[in-house]
Amino acid sequence: MEHEISVPDLTEKLKDAPSQPGAKSVCLLDVREPWEAKLCALPGARLIPMGDVPSRVHRELDPDAHIVVYCHHGLRSLSVVLWLREQGFEQAQSLAGGIEAWARAVDPTMARY
Fold first, then answer.
1. pTM (predicted TM-score)
2. What is the spatial distance between Cα 37 and Cα 51, in angstroms, rounded to a whole number?
3. What angle do CA 31, 36, 41 make, to 5 degrees?
4. Which letter does DSSP use for residue 65 in this model?
5. Do the bridges between strand 67-70 and strand 46-47 make them parallel or antiparallel, or are there none, so unpaired?
6. Domain extents for the chain?
7. Pairing relation of β-strands 67-70 and 27-30?
8. What whole-number distance in Å separates Cα of residue 64 and Cα of residue 66?
9. How distant is the alpha carbon of residue 49 from its chain centre?
10. CA 50 to mean position of chain CA atoms
């Protein structure tokens, strides 16, 4: 599995997962700071700021789940994905371009910063 997932690919996964029998949903992990998440966020995302990931992730996330990590532009999330992979979260992926790319491609009404 690639370390990054594109906005179009994530859009398809989010759209298709609930309708496919036996399909697991994608776990969205927002690693931005709380003030950033208040500005805009993906529906259903779990907020764990990057600095809190090491102390919380093993208690709060399933290592077998498909986890898509996102931040503002994709740099923090890619760092978190690399760390998660080392911890055994084999299906962790970073949203390429972050929530900024999502806002541009999927939801132009989303607040941008």
1. 0.94
2. 15
3. 75
4. S
5. unpaired
6. 4-105
7. parallel
8. 7
9. 12
10. 12
Tell me the angle at which helices 75-86 and 53-60 cross, rounded to the nearest 10 degrees.
60
| Tens-digit pLDDT profile for residues 20-50 | 555 578 999 999 999 999 999 999 999 999 9
**What are 39-84's pLDDT values in tens digits?**
999 999 999 999 999 999 999 999 999 999 999 999 999 999 999 9
In the structure encoding, which two tokens stand for residue 99, read together?
């929530």
Phi/psi-derived region of residue 74, left when phi > 0, alpha when psi is between -120 and 50, beta in every other case: left
Structure tokens at 35: 């003030």
Contact 69, 80 (CB under 8 A): yes
Instruction: Report which of 100, 91, 39 is spatially closest to residue 63, judged by C-alpha positions.
Output: 91
Arch. (CATH architecture) of 4-105:
3-Layer(aba) Sandwich (3.40)
Task: Specify the DSSP class assigned to residue 91.
Answer: T
- Are 74 and 62 within 8 A, CB to CB? no
The CB-side HSE value for 99 (13 A sphere, CA atoms) comes to: 24
Q: Is 3 left (phi over 0), alpha (psi -120 to 50) or beta?
A: alpha
